[in-house]
Amino acid sequence: MTTFIAILVDGSIYASWLFLVSAGLTVIYGVMRILNMAHGSFYAIGAYAGASLVGWWFSGAGGNPYVSYLLLLGAALVAGLVVGFFIEFSLLRRMYGRDEILMVIVTYALLLILEDAIKLVWGVDPYFAYQPYGLLGRVSFSGLTFANYDLGLIGVSLVVGFGLWLILNRTHKGKLLRAVIHDREVAVAMGVNVKAMFAVTFAVGTTLGALAGALTAPAISVSPGIGVEVIVLAFAVVVVGGMGSIGGAAAGAVLVGLTRAAAVHLAPELELFVIYGVMSLVLSVRPQGLFGQTLVRKI
Amino acid sequence: MRSLIRLCPGVFGRLAATLVAAAGLSAAAEAEARVELGASAAEAEVSIGCMYPMSGRAAIYGRDSAAGIKLALADIQAGALGPRAPKLRVIVEDDRSKAAYAVRIAEDFVRQDKVKFFCGMVSSGVAQAVSEVARAQKVILVGTDHASSRLTIDALHRYYFRVTNDSWISNAAGARYLAELQRETGWKRVAFIGPDYDYGHASWSDLRESLQLLGVSYDNVGEFWPRLYEPDYSAYISAIAATKPDIVVTALWGGDFIAFLRQAASTSFFDSIQLANFDTGGNYEVMLALGSNPPPGLILSARHHNNWPDTERNRAFVAAFHASEGRYPTYAAAGAYSGIMAIASAVKTVGGGRKADVEAMVEALENLRLKLPKDPDGFTSYIDKTTHQIVQPLAIGRVVPNTDFPPAKVMLGEWRVYTAEDLIPPPEVVRRRRAAMGAKP
Fold first, then answer.
1. Is residue A91 part of a domain?
2. What DSSP designation does A153 have?
3. B161 bridge partner residues
4. CATH number of the domain within which A192 lies
5. A95 interfaces chain B, CB cutoff of 8 Å
6. How far apart are CA B292 and CA B400, in angstroms?
7. B370 to each of B149, B166, B375, how far by Cα in Å?
């Protein structure tokens, strides 16, 4: 029973992190049909920005340590929005309507540029922002102890997921966005400002990536290359769930997270295999992913 | 003709292939240009090709290694090896932590730069690949950082040498520490967590073998193998805790070890478990990350310590590094420093330029005795001919408050020091492991 609870909680924590990492990727693909290879870089920028601000706060600049959580959120918001809008305006806006594979290459080039830009700004030394992680203490139940910060990630991912669902399904702008997703040409014909929609969507996606990075920063050492490592994992999650589907990303994250936790507890040597094993299994049965829709096109 | 087709699988397949290929190539984007140190190509007696990660997660090791090389070259010119300092040309290239890329660099070093020595490498996987180039090209490889004992014991060849402790030496000392601790506390249950690649597996294998040789009886309650650069250890931490070990030994290193420590410290992990890392856990970057409230029960060591041995030579090395770089070194710096000093000694013995005979250099290295920053007073490092591994004493310590190396608030202390000769793998172990490889014992 203890092992079952451990798998459930550990799996939920990992799933929440996976969802945060992959939500922005799937939002951008769902609306813009751009598989954003640079998503990992936004994750890294959020992590560096968050770690820098938290480091500054605890190096004598600040007072109340709990403000550091606001700094993490603020860092993600500012870094994601500024960099996201800048890239959309200066680069992607000129590329809309191109082939999806070309956009993969464009965003891959962006990844390379951003990785070097990160090194120019922050250098290659690791950054440590551990204080927010330990500040919340820990909780014990069923003989197991968990960091409250990790459990808090589950709450944050639920808020992010619910917020995205709410915006898409219960707001006017969300309905306009769904119209764009359904048929971009008709949406334009009906007077929807698709360019503005795309700009906002891209900035929201990059901000979600930066948020994932900022919230992960207190638990890791932030160093060059962290963005590259998450992109393949995020891709696995959105492919399992169905590309472009928020619900799919959530389902994919839960499936991968729980399976990985079960592997760690029951057969540790299979941990890496099960993540991609799940992906292979799902794709062999449903090539479009669990929540993905089969599209048709004219040729 | 127009028809409708199912599009998704094809697009997903193409996207997936592109993405995976691009992700695999992404590290390539971080390459940094090569750096040449020391004498020019025209005046150098010998050229040395060093490969370190200068980008990505392990970049700090590459950067500190390059700084260590500069210090070694300066010391050599200042007469550290006596009069008539050999003129060395050291080329440092970013190996990107990729074996295939490092092999290409190594081959270019031989073909274009006519190097007589390779040096460096942080990843044991990269070192194994380059070691094969060294064997084939008859170029001497002096390992300064990577630590898998497979290179010194199982698959040693004539042209491979190591100048910092490998996983055998570190874990032989660790086994002695654990044996002493068992006599004092009666611990019985041990679990292991290490990165799922050669270094992690070699470390665990070396520790178990050393414990067996010492006759230590224990229960192996679990082995855990996260991938390298795993960001989330929470599942591992609760899985390890569920096995109720007295001691957890880990071979996680760098940012991975720090992430594990941080995540474990926020659970009840350290309430009843001691965590030991005998090869890399005492690195300065870990001391820095521990802040002022380190978790209890840490048993750590590293391949070099800024505060042990407390000798004039070690203090001078650390101070020179700080004066040059404005920060204190990780163990990578002392490793690279030792490598260049060892090579310089061999060149000085044999002679460079046209006299630079590789076979004679091998002989010189096999008979090398060299005073290094890691040597306590009265001890001089030397090469073990059987394994081509440098023989040095090793100190294992506990975390104690210490602000002598800011910004770190803690350093290791309460040292237990293990005699160098006790840490050499016994001949029967070397014979058995080489026989298993089909190699010459």
1. yes
2. H
3. B142
4. 1.10.3470
5. no
6. 10
7. 22, 18, 9
Residues 24-63 of chain A whose Cβ lies under 8 A from any Cβ of chain B: 35, 37
Phi/psi of residue B92, nearest 5 degrees:
-110, 125
At B11 the pLDDT is 45
- CB contact, 8 Å: A96 with chain B? no
Cβ distance A292 to B3 less than 8 Å, yes or no, reads no
Enumerate the β-bridge partners of residue B5: A297
Choose the closest CB to A124 out of B27, B60, B229.
B60
C-alpha A51, offset from chain centre: 18
Show the CA angle centred on residue B3, arms to residues B2 and B6, nearest 5°: 145
Domains detected in chain B: 29-166+310-392 (3.40.50.2300), 168-306+393-423 (3.40.50.2300)
pLDDT at B179 over 70: yes
Structure ipTM: 0.71
Q: Considering the domain boundaries, does residue A136 fall inside one?
A: yes
**What total number of domains does chain A contain?**
1
| Per-residue confidence (pLDDT) for residue B6, from 0 to 100 | 38
Of B15, B57, B269, the CB nearest to A100: B15
pTM: 0.82
Beta carbons of B173 and B301 less than 8 angstroms apart: yes
**Burial label, B83 (beta-carbon count in 10 A; 0-12, 13-18, 19+):** exposed
Chain A residues whose CB is inside 8 A of the B21 CB are: none
What are the phi and psi torsion angles at B32 (to 5°)? -120, 150
pLDDT tens, residue by residue, A217-265? 998 888 888 888 888 889 989 999 888 888 999 999 999 999 999 998 8
Q: CB-based contacts of B438: which residues, under 8 Å, 6+ apart?
A: none
Question: Which residues of chain A have a CB within 8 Å of the CB of B234?
Answer: 10, 13-14, 146-147, 150
A120, A154, A220: best to mutate for the B interface, most B CBs within 10 A: A220
β-pairing verdict for B140-143 and B117-120: parallel
Rounded to whole angstroms, the Cα distance separating A213 from B133 reads 40
